[in-house]
UniProtKB/TrEMBL annotation:
InterPro entries: EXOC3/Sec6 (IPR010326), EXOC3/Sec6_C (IPR042532). Belongs to the SEC6 family. Keywords: Exocytosis. It comes from Cyprinus carpio. GO terms for biological process: exocyst localization; exocytosis. This is Exocyst complex component 3. One of its GO terms (molecular function) is SNARE binding. It comes from the Eukaryota. GO terms for cellular component: exocyst. Transmembrane segments: none annotated.
Length: 733
């Protein structure tokens, strides 16, 4: 304490010495004294307030502790009273066992009273249900069946709760409701019968199929309820779970399998073309049935059933099983050719699983091969072995014939030039078409496998664009290989085939090679547009309006890629340039339709329109250069035509400008017009509606559009909602 006082005195002396360093400061001593007195009084007041606050807090804490102590004592006393009461009530609880039993019995009797009407009328309801099933009123029959099962299950549950070991009473209830289980089985037979004839039923009476599905859904819901109760109580009614949905799937699978197996109406003994007829009938049945499933049957099942995909997989599985059975038979050489041609070509073509009527739900790329690769190789090996044996036989026969000719007394035959010849060359060269046919069949199989390898390489590259390192160059080589294959096959055909007419195998291989080349070009363009994605996203934005260089970068990138693509042979390089041109313009138009910007005034509209016209000219110049001067104006002119709509200063003339745009591009739709007007930013709701309605009355036909541009351009639904709230019918479809 003394040390503190000394430090305080020393500090005070130092402060006073600092204040009185000059003589004129002595006149202010009184002023300094009063100021220091005020500071001292202020500090003392703050100290007193702080101490008082601490004392008040301590006092409050003590009061709360005292109160808590009293509460603890009260709780302790209450717990002691509760413990005392609980010990005294043990005997009382044991004496209430009779009351508990009475409550359980009352619950059972209440359930019996609730179901009393059904209990007394069980025989009558059973007869009515049986009659309804026979009359085909399946929904009503199922409703009565559910009432009977509910009454039975409630009574058995209450009996189980009261005395689960009382087997006699349980059997008594089960015996009284004994016919209910028979009704359930009778109804299920009707359901399976309808499902077995589903393809016919959905055409004639789809409501019957809907009723069957509703009944199965009800039973599935009851199954789940009963299983949940079993987890809680251990009780499960007789016959549960029925699992009718699983049985429905089994019957549908059996129906599809039987449908495929029923396609064989001929045998080799009765018809040499039996296999061709069988495969054609199978193709027709599968295509017709899947079309019915897509257009009619999916409407009879809930969406979560994924009905079309289920049937699609069932038919593929059944066809695969049937084809494997055929492959295991002792097929002749021509039958092997027919089977492999159908499996490798027809099945996944537009004639069957890729048919337009099945699109877009049907994705043939996801289908597993009908025949395993080793089975295809075995069939080809078998064909080659048979083919070699036949050639040997034919040559032996030709030599024997030629040998016999030597024994004739007549002169040998002469050719058209008068030279002698025997029948040997004619017989030998009859074999050439068969050799060429075998070569084509091998090509068909290898091209299918080659195509899968290419797709796999592209998927691998999309995961890691650094691998393979020379992806672009090898993809170009693959595209060129397709053209080389076509030229080589045509050369062989001219050399070895006796007929100049194109065969089905020729068309198949030509089509496959074109598809492989087209997919390769598509993969390369996807590579280009992955690099352009960021710059395409900048188009028609505020950043673009204020001076973005996105289009400059796009043009430089495309030209750089196409310097490499110049090594692609014709006609693939020309088609690729045209597709790149179309995609660039479409992406530009998509940027407009997505309403990334809405012009605020006439100056912005003019600046934006001028920029669009300039960029359209940039695209024209680029693709004229890439396409060696061919006409590329129509696609780019669509951008300039839209720019004229934005550039117009007099809104009263807006209809004329829009109608000019529609006349040039008839495939433009209502949502496109609404999006353009929204980007323009000054068209009122009434003006938009007037323009749409007027254009609808004078809409030109889009059926003759040779190069549609807007057809594949969609306007996002959220953008459309933000752009317009008016209820205008779909006018420009």
């Amino acid at each position: 304490m003394e040390e503190t006082n000394r430090e305080a005195v020393a500090t005070a002396v130092q402060r006073v010495a600092g204040m009185l360093q000059r003589s004129d400061q002595l006149d202010k001593v009184e002023q300094y004294r009063r100021r220091e007195a005020r500071k001292k009084a202020s500090v003392e007041a703050r100290l007193k307030a702080a101490i008082q606050s601490q004392l008040d807090g301590v006092q409050t804490g003590l009061r709360q502790l005292h109160k808590a102590l009293c509460d603890v004592k009260d709780i302790q006393n209450s717990l002691a009273d509760v413990s005392k009461d609980w010990r005294q009530s043990i005997n009382t609880i044991e004496s209430l066992k009779d009351v508990k039993d009475a409550v359980v019995q009352h619950s059972q009797l209440a359930s019996a009273v609730e179901n009393l009407k059904n209990i007394f009328s069980v025989p009558e309801i059973v007869r009515e249900t049986h009659d309804l099933i026979e009359q085909g009123e399946l929904l009503q029959a199922h409703r009565k069946l559910m009432d009977l099962e509910c009454s039975r299950d409630d009574l058995m549950y209450e009996q189980y709760r009261m005395d689960s070991k009382n087997v006699h009473d349980m059997n008594l209830i089960r015996s009284y409701f004994g016919q209910v289980q028979g009704l359930s089985e009778e109804l299920s037979k009707q359901l399976w019968m309808v499902l077995q004839r589903a393809m016919v039923t959905v055409r004639r009476d789809p409501t019957m199929l809907v009723s069957v599905v509703r009944i199965i859904e009800r039973e599935e819901k009851i199954d789940r309820k009963m299983l949940d109760r079993k987890k809680q109580t251990g009780f499960i009614p007789p016959g549960r779970p029925k699992c009718w949905k699983n049985r429905m799937n089994e019957f549908l699978e059996g129906t599809v399998s039987a449908r495929i197996e029923s396609t064989q109406s001929e045998t080799r003994e009765s018809d040499k073309m039996w296999l061709v007829r069988l495969l054609e009938i199978t193709r027709k049945y599968v295509l017709d049935d899947l079309t019915v499933v897509k257009n009619l049957m999916v409407q009879c099942f809930p969406p979560h059933y994924n009905t079309f995909q289920v049937f699609f997989d069932l038919y593929h599985k059944s066809v695969s099983a049937r084809v494997q059975e055929l492959a295991a038979e002792d097929l002749e050489a021509n039958e092997i050719v027919s089977l492999l041609t159908w499996v490798l070509n027809t099945y996944k073509s537009v004639e069957m699983m890729a048919h337009p009527d099945l699109q877009p739900e049907c994705d043939v790329k996801q289908l597993e091969p009908l025949l395993p690769e080793h089975v295809v190789d075995d069939l080809l090996g078998k064909y080659l072995k048979t083919f070699t044996s036949n050639i040997t036989g034919w040559l032996r026969k030709a030599l024997e014939t030629d040998k016999k000719d030597w024994q004739k007394e007549t002169e040998p035959e002469a050719d058209q030039d008068g030279y002698y010849q025997t029948t040997l060359p004619a017989i030998v060269f009859q074999v050439q078409p068969l050799i060429f046919l075998y070569f084509l069949l091998r090509c068909l199989n290898r091209i299918c496998r080659w195509r899968l390898v290419i797709i796999g390489k592209d998927e691998e590259h999309m995961k890691d664009r650094q691998h393979p390192q020379c992806y672009v160059q090898y993809m170009i080589a693959i595209i060129n290989n397709c053209q080389t294959f076509k030229e080589s096959i045509n050369s062989l055909k001219r050399k070895y085939s006796q007929s100049a007419e194109a065969t089905q195998n020729d068309a198949t291989i030509d089509k496959l090679l074109n598809e492989v080349a087209r997919e390769g070009c598509q993969f390369l363009l996807d590579e280009v547009f992955l690099d352009l994605e960021h710059h395409l996203n900048d188009l028609l934005t505020r950043k673009w309006l204020t001076g973005s260089h996105a289009v400059d970068t796009i043009c430089v990138t495309v030209e750089d890629y196409f310097n490499d693509f110049a090594k692609i042979k014709k006609p693939n390089n020309q088609e690729m340039t045209s597709e790149a041109h179309r995609r660039v313009v479409v992406e530009y138009l998509k940027a407009i339709m997505q309403k990334r910007i809405s012009f605020k005034n006439a100056d912005e509209r003019k600046d934006g329109a001028d920029r669009m016209i300039k960029e359209a000219d940039q695209f024209k110049f680029l693709f004229r250069k890439l396409s060696a001067g061919e006409d590329t104006d129509r696609l780019c002119d669509s951008i300039a035509a839209i720019a004229e709509v934005f550039k117009l200063t007099d809104p009263a003339l807006l209809y004329l400008e829009v109608s000019t745009l529609v006349s040039k591009y008839p495939d433009i739709r209502e949502e496109h017009i609404v999006a353009l007007l929204a980007v323009r930013g000054d068209a009122s709701r009434e003006m938009r509606q007037m323009i749409i309605e007027t254009l609808n009355q004078n809409k030109p036909s889009s059926s003759t559009v040779s190069q549609p541009i807007f057809r594949d351009i969609t306007v996002p639904s959220n953008t459309m909602t933000a752009m317009t709230s008016m209820a205008v019918p779909k006018l420009l479809k």
